[in-house]
Amino acid sequence: MKDLVQEFVEAVRPLAKQLSEFGDQVATFVRENPDFVEGLKRYFENIPDFHGEIWKKGAALGWFPNWFMTLSYDTAVMRGQSELDRFMVDHITNHLDQLELELINRYEKRREILETAFNLHRQGVYIASIPLFLSQSDGICAQNIGSYLFTEHDKRGQRVSEILDQVPEEFEKILYAPMTVNTQYMAGIGKSKAEDKALAPNRSGIMHGSRKHLDYGTEINSLKCISLLAYTAYIFDRSVKA
After folding, report:
1. Could you tell me the CA-to-CA distances from 226 to 28, 37, 68, 167, 168 in Å, in that order?
2. How do the domains of the chain map onto residue ranges?
3. pTM of the model as a whole
Protein backbone atom coordinates (compact mmCIF):
# COMPACT_ATOMS: atom_id res chain seq x y z
CA MET A 1 0.00 0.00 0.00
CA LYS A 2 2.85 2.35 0.86
CA ASP A 3 4.37 1.80 -2.58
CA LEU A 4 1.06 2.67 -4.27
CA VAL A 5 0.80 5.88 -2.30
CA GLN A 6 4.36 6.80 -3.18
CA GLU A 7 3.71 6.10 -6.86
CA PHE A 8 0.62 8.31 -6.77
CA VAL A 9 2.53 11.13 -5.10
CA GLU A 10 5.28 10.92 -7.70
CA ALA A 11 2.72 10.85 -10.51
CA VAL A 12 0.89 14.01 -9.40
CA ARG A 13 4.00 15.93 -8.37
CA PRO A 14 4.53 17.45 -11.87
CA LEU A 15 0.87 18.46 -12.02
CA ALA A 16 1.07 20.06 -8.59
CA LYS A 17 4.15 21.98 -9.71
CA GLN A 18 2.38 23.19 -12.85
CA LEU A 19 -0.64 24.30 -10.84
CA SER A 20 1.59 26.15 -8.42
CA GLU A 21 3.40 27.91 -11.24
CA PHE A 22 0.08 28.80 -12.86
CA GLY A 23 -1.18 30.21 -9.55
CA ASP A 24 1.96 32.32 -9.28
CA GLN A 25 1.42 33.62 -12.82
CA VAL A 26 -2.20 34.55 -12.05
CA ALA A 27 -1.18 36.30 -8.84
CA THR A 28 1.50 38.25 -10.73
CA PHE A 29 -0.97 39.24 -13.45
CA VAL A 30 -3.49 40.44 -10.85
CA ARG A 31 -0.87 42.56 -9.09
CA GLU A 32 0.37 44.07 -12.35
CA ASN A 33 -3.09 44.68 -13.91
CA PRO A 34 -5.44 46.01 -11.22
CA ASP A 35 -7.55 47.97 -13.74
CA PHE A 36 -8.26 44.85 -15.80
CA VAL A 37 -9.26 42.88 -12.73
CA GLU A 38 -11.49 45.67 -11.48
CA GLY A 39 -13.11 45.96 -14.90
CA LEU A 40 -13.73 42.21 -14.99
CA LYS A 41 -15.29 42.40 -11.54
CA ARG A 42 -17.61 45.23 -12.63
CA TYR A 43 -18.58 43.25 -15.74
CA PHE A 44 -19.71 40.22 -13.75
CA GLU A 45 -21.51 42.42 -11.24
CA ASN A 46 -23.42 44.15 -14.04
CA ILE A 47 -24.13 41.26 -16.41
CA PRO A 48 -27.92 41.77 -16.13
CA ASP A 49 -27.65 45.45 -17.07
CA PHE A 50 -25.14 44.67 -19.83
CA HIS A 51 -27.32 42.06 -21.50
CA GLY A 52 -30.45 44.10 -20.84
CA GLU A 53 -28.99 46.98 -22.83
CA ILE A 54 -28.06 44.65 -25.70
CA TRP A 55 -31.58 43.23 -25.82
CA LYS A 56 -33.04 46.75 -25.74
CA LYS A 57 -30.89 47.66 -28.72
CA GLY A 58 -32.05 44.50 -30.50
CA ALA A 59 -35.68 45.50 -29.89
CA ALA A 60 -35.04 48.99 -31.23
CA LEU A 61 -33.64 47.34 -34.38
CA GLY A 62 -36.80 45.24 -34.74
CA TRP A 63 -35.74 41.84 -33.38
CA PHE A 64 -36.33 39.89 -30.17
CA PRO A 65 -35.06 36.70 -28.46
CA ASN A 66 -37.10 33.49 -28.17
CA TRP A 67 -36.97 29.91 -26.86
CA PHE A 68 -34.33 28.86 -29.39
CA MET A 69 -32.01 31.85 -29.17
CA THR A 70 -28.28 31.59 -28.47
CA LEU A 71 -25.65 34.11 -27.44
CA SER A 72 -25.05 34.66 -31.16
CA TYR A 73 -28.03 37.02 -30.95
CA ASP A 74 -26.09 39.32 -28.63
CA THR A 75 -23.12 39.29 -30.98
CA ALA A 76 -25.30 40.08 -33.98
CA VAL A 77 -26.97 42.98 -32.14
CA MET A 78 -23.61 44.51 -31.30
CA ARG A 79 -22.56 44.29 -34.97
CA GLY A 80 -25.45 46.47 -36.09
CA GLN A 81 -28.60 46.45 -38.19
CA SER A 82 -27.34 44.63 -41.30
CA GLU A 83 -25.69 41.80 -39.41
CA LEU A 84 -28.65 41.45 -37.04
CA ASP A 85 -31.09 41.36 -39.97
CA ARG A 86 -29.09 38.58 -41.66
CA PHE A 87 -28.78 36.56 -38.47
CA MET A 88 -32.42 36.84 -37.48
CA VAL A 89 -33.83 36.19 -40.97
CA ASP A 90 -31.91 32.89 -40.95
CA HIS A 91 -32.85 32.12 -37.36
CA ILE A 92 -36.60 32.72 -37.67
CA THR A 93 -36.77 30.98 -41.06
CA ASN A 94 -34.93 27.92 -39.75
CA HIS A 95 -37.09 27.73 -36.61
CA LEU A 96 -40.41 28.67 -38.18
CA ASP A 97 -42.16 25.34 -37.55
CA GLN A 98 -40.83 25.13 -34.00
CA LEU A 99 -41.93 28.65 -33.16
CA GLU A 100 -45.41 28.00 -34.52
CA LEU A 101 -45.69 24.82 -32.45
CA GLU A 102 -44.49 26.56 -29.27
CA LEU A 103 -47.07 29.30 -29.73
CA ILE A 104 -49.96 26.95 -30.45
CA ASN A 105 -49.06 24.65 -27.55
CA ARG A 106 -49.27 27.60 -25.17
CA TYR A 107 -52.26 29.37 -26.74
CA GLU A 108 -54.53 26.64 -28.07
CA LYS A 109 -57.52 28.96 -28.36
CA ARG A 110 -55.52 31.06 -30.82
CA ARG A 111 -54.64 28.02 -32.96
CA GLU A 112 -56.76 28.88 -36.00
CA ILE A 113 -55.48 32.44 -36.18
CA LEU A 114 -51.86 31.41 -35.60
CA GLU A 115 -51.97 28.60 -38.17
CA THR A 116 -53.56 30.95 -40.70
CA ALA A 117 -50.93 33.64 -40.07
CA PHE A 118 -48.02 31.21 -40.43
CA ASN A 119 -49.50 29.67 -43.56
CA LEU A 120 -49.96 33.11 -45.11
CA HIS A 121 -46.33 33.86 -44.30
CA ARG A 122 -45.18 30.62 -45.96
CA GLN A 123 -47.24 31.50 -49.03
CA GLY A 124 -45.60 34.92 -49.22
CA VAL A 125 -48.85 36.80 -48.48
CA TYR A 126 -47.13 39.15 -46.06
CA ILE A 127 -49.72 41.94 -46.27
CA ALA A 128 -52.12 39.50 -44.56
CA SER A 129 -49.74 37.64 -42.21
CA ILE A 130 -48.30 40.79 -40.62
CA PRO A 131 -51.56 42.23 -39.20
CA LEU A 132 -52.41 38.80 -37.75
CA PHE A 133 -49.02 38.44 -36.07
CA LEU A 134 -49.26 41.96 -34.65
CA SER A 135 -52.79 41.40 -33.33
CA GLN A 136 -51.76 38.20 -31.55
CA SER A 137 -48.75 39.87 -29.94
CA ASP A 138 -51.12 42.52 -28.62
CA GLY A 139 -53.62 39.94 -27.40
CA ILE A 140 -51.09 37.67 -25.71
CA CYS A 141 -49.61 40.63 -23.86
CA ALA A 142 -53.06 41.76 -22.67
CA GLN A 143 -53.99 38.20 -21.71
CA ASN A 144 -50.97 37.94 -19.42
CA ILE A 145 -50.62 41.37 -17.84
CA GLY A 146 -53.94 43.10 -18.50
CA SER A 147 -52.37 45.71 -20.76
CA TYR A 148 -52.10 45.86 -24.54
CA LEU A 149 -48.63 45.89 -26.04
CA PHE A 150 -48.98 48.70 -28.54
CA THR A 151 -51.43 51.23 -27.12
CA GLU A 152 -51.31 51.27 -23.32
CA HIS A 153 -47.70 52.32 -22.83
CA ASP A 154 -48.00 53.70 -19.29
CA LYS A 155 -50.13 50.83 -18.05
CA ARG A 156 -47.81 48.29 -19.67
CA GLY A 157 -44.79 49.92 -18.06
CA GLN A 158 -46.45 49.83 -14.66
CA ARG A 159 -47.41 46.16 -15.01
CA VAL A 160 -43.90 45.20 -16.15
CA SER A 161 -42.44 47.01 -13.13
CA GLU A 162 -44.78 45.10 -10.84
CA ILE A 163 -43.78 41.80 -12.42
CA LEU A 164 -40.08 42.58 -12.09
CA ASP A 165 -40.58 43.20 -8.37
CA GLN A 166 -41.81 39.60 -8.10
CA VAL A 167 -39.03 38.02 -10.16
CA PRO A 168 -36.06 36.87 -8.06
CA GLU A 169 -33.74 35.74 -10.86
CA GLU A 170 -31.67 38.37 -12.64
CA PHE A 171 -31.93 36.54 -15.97
CA GLU A 172 -35.71 36.72 -15.80
CA LYS A 173 -35.40 40.48 -15.39
CA ILE A 174 -33.19 40.69 -18.50
CA LEU A 175 -36.01 39.08 -20.48
CA TYR A 176 -38.26 42.06 -19.85
CA ALA A 177 -35.73 44.69 -20.94
CA PRO A 178 -37.09 44.87 -24.54
CA MET A 179 -40.59 45.50 -23.13
CA THR A 180 -39.37 48.85 -21.80
CA VAL A 181 -38.41 50.15 -25.26
CA ASN A 182 -40.91 52.14 -27.36
CA THR A 183 -39.92 50.71 -30.71
CA GLN A 184 -40.94 51.52 -34.29
CA TYR A 185 -43.67 48.90 -33.87
CA MET A 186 -45.30 51.17 -31.30
CA ALA A 187 -44.41 54.54 -32.78
CA GLY A 188 -46.91 57.06 -34.14
CA ILE A 189 -47.99 56.91 -37.77
CA GLY A 190 -45.79 59.91 -38.52
CA LYS A 191 -42.67 57.75 -38.11
CA SER A 192 -42.69 56.87 -41.80
CA LYS A 193 -39.26 57.77 -43.16
CA ALA A 194 -37.26 55.06 -44.89
CA GLU A 195 -34.86 54.82 -41.96
CA ASP A 196 -37.79 54.33 -39.58
CA LYS A 197 -39.36 51.60 -41.71
CA ALA A 198 -35.99 49.84 -41.92
CA LEU A 199 -36.23 49.22 -38.18
CA ALA A 200 -39.65 47.56 -38.03
CA PRO A 201 -43.19 47.74 -39.40
CA ASN A 202 -45.37 50.40 -37.80
CA ARG A 203 -48.40 48.83 -36.15
CA SER A 204 -50.55 51.97 -36.10
CA GLY A 205 -49.83 52.81 -39.71
CA ILE A 206 -50.63 49.27 -40.82
CA MET A 207 -53.80 48.74 -38.80
CA HIS A 208 -55.20 52.17 -39.69
CA GLY A 209 -54.40 51.79 -43.38
CA SER A 210 -52.23 54.89 -43.50
CA ARG A 211 -51.10 55.82 -47.01
CA LYS A 212 -47.64 56.36 -45.46
CA HIS A 213 -47.35 52.67 -44.57
CA LEU A 214 -48.82 50.82 -47.55
CA ASP A 215 -45.42 49.27 -48.36
CA TYR A 216 -45.23 47.13 -45.21
CA GLY A 217 -45.84 43.74 -46.86
CA THR A 218 -42.30 42.37 -47.07
CA GLU A 219 -40.79 39.07 -45.94
CA ILE A 220 -38.42 40.69 -43.46
CA ASN A 221 -41.29 42.62 -41.85
CA SER A 222 -43.29 39.42 -41.49
CA LEU A 223 -40.27 37.70 -39.93
CA LYS A 224 -39.82 40.62 -37.55
CA CYS A 225 -43.46 40.33 -36.50
CA ILE A 226 -42.96 36.62 -35.85
CA SER A 227 -39.94 37.54 -33.75
CA LEU A 228 -42.02 39.96 -31.69
CA LEU A 229 -44.88 37.47 -31.30
CA ALA A 230 -42.55 34.65 -30.20
CA TYR A 231 -40.82 36.96 -27.73
CA THR A 232 -44.12 38.08 -26.23
CA ALA A 233 -45.14 34.46 -25.61
CA TYR A 234 -41.62 33.51 -24.49
CA ILE A 235 -41.33 36.00 -21.65
CA PHE A 236 -44.74 35.24 -20.21
CA ASP A 237 -44.03 31.52 -20.52
CA ARG A 238 -40.92 31.89 -18.36
CA SER A 239 -41.98 34.50 -15.83
CA VAL A 240 -44.66 35.49 -13.35
CA LYS A 241 -48.23 35.18 -14.59
CA ALA A 242 -50.66 37.99 -13.91
Report:
1. 51, 41, 13, 26, 29
2. 46-238
3. 0.78
